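F.,

This is the one I mentioned.
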């Protein structure tokens, strides 16, 4: 069996409002959980309680996701600021010295 080799390079990762997306998904999971709570007995009678607890688990895992992506955004911002500072120090200021 031959080893698989990619024919082209992987695309750059998509960047966007990651924190907002994860927060929205978490809110949606908790909303679905709350909507299903009044029907807990109906789900229990039919052996479908996993629907309710899946939504609860999605909400709680979403809280971990929010914590993670907020830390990731903070780390990316700190890295970008560090890179900008290094670039500023490396490039000499042009036009700051008077010419004779």
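My design for it:
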């Amino acid at each position: 069996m031959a080893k698989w080799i990619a024919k082209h390079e992987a695309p750059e990762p998509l960047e966007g409002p990651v924190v907002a997306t994860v927060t929205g998904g978490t809110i949606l999971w908790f909303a679905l959980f709350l909507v299903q709570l009044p029907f807990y007995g109906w789900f229990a009678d039919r052996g479908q309680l996993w629907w309710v607890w899946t939504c609860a688990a999605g909400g709680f895992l979403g809280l971990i996701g929010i914590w993670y992506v907020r830390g990731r955004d903070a780390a990316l911002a700190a890295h970008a600021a560090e890179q900008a500072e290094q670039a500023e120090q490396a490039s000499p200021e042009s036009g700051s010295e008077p010419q004779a």
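The mean pLDDT is 90.

Talk soon.
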